[in-house]
Amino acid sequence: MTIKGRDLPVAVTTRRLQLCGLSMAEASNLTAHLSGLPAVESGWTVRQIEHLLFLRSIVETHQLKP
Fold first, then answer.
1. 3 state DSSP class of 60
2. Which of 31, 34, 44, 54 has its CA 20 to 30 A from that of 18?
3. 8-34, pLDDT tens digit by residue?
């Protein structure tokens, strides 16, 4: 998924942050933040982040009107 001209593979980013010592909730919140999404108390799932980014991309490319 391309975010502001940069590739941000959500699952890879989240996993690398976990390998650096972050919890799943911390890693997913940071990944979401890097993607322009707000943090949530319980953390995001990778699937939720990817789904929201997918929806954002189809709205931004005018394939779906908001």
1. helix
2. 54
3. 689 999 999 999 999 999 999 999 999
- Is residue 65 included in any domain, yes or no? no
User: Could you give the CA distance from residue 40 to residue 43 in angstroms, rounded to a whole number?
Assistant: 5
DSSP labels, 53-64: HHHHHHHHTTSS
Is residue 48 assigned to a domain? yes
- Does any domain span residue 10? yes
Q: Is 2 helix (H, G, I), strand (E, B) or coil?
A: strand
Q: Rounded to two decimals, what is the model's pTM? A: 0.77
Q: 31, 44 in Cβ contact below 8 A?
A: yes
